[in-house]
Specification:
The protein is mainly beta. The chain is built from no helices and eleven strands. The strands form three sheets. Strands 1, 2, 3, 6, 7, 8 and 11 form a seven-stranded antiparallel β-sheet that branches. It has a two-stranded antiparallel ribbon with strand order 4-5. A two-stranded antiparallel sheet has the order 9-10. The protein is globular and about 55 Å long. The model has no long low-confidence stretch (mean pLDDT 93).
Length: 151
């Protein structure tokens, strides 16, 4: 029996997390690694986003899982919990929030949902949290109705 899709709504901000069975999902964010010190034996690294991460989900609040789609592929490696080998992805409709930015090497705090966005709708890929080093799993809900807020 396949695991059930669900969306957790967080009461403090109205943001949402996509879940499938026991796993929560994150926006798939490509990584940009930079050596930051250490030694050749014990190097220190910094990792930064190489692809967009500042999305809000464009979901129907009455039926939030309706627009989510699970994509499974066979496990083809002994280490499936990496971005390159992820065996399960969920696609979702989203819009970027251009004013949601990185400050002092971390993202700005979540604001209350729903959030307004005039950006085009995109289909994003989401991966299990265990596959991602950079994680965005609590996402604002996008809506352009009268109760939506500017970022």
């Amino acid at each position: 029996m396949p695991a059930k899709l669900a969306v957790t709504v967080w009461p403090r901000t109205g943001s949402v997390t996509v879940d499938r069975g026991p796993l929560s999902y994150s926006v798939r964010i490509e990584e940009d690694w930079h050596r930051a010190g250490g030694t050749d034996t014990w190097p220190e690294w910094e990792v930064f986003p190489k692809s967009p991460w500042n999305y809000g989900l464009a979901i129907d609040r009455a039926d939030p899982v309706a627009s989510l789609e699970v994509k499974e592929k066979p496990v083809s490696t002994t280490q499936p919990w990496t971005l390159d080998a992820v065996p399960i992805e969920i696609t979702a409709h989203a819009r970027r929030i251009p004013n949601w930015r990185i400050e002092d090497n971390t993202v700005q705090a979540l604001r209350q949902s729903p959030v307004r966005s005039d950006q085009p709708e995109e289909t994003i890929r989401m991966v299990p949290l265990g596959c991602a080093r950079l994680r965005m799993s609590c996402l604002p809900v996008i809506d352009n109705g009268p109760d939506a807020r500017e970022w």
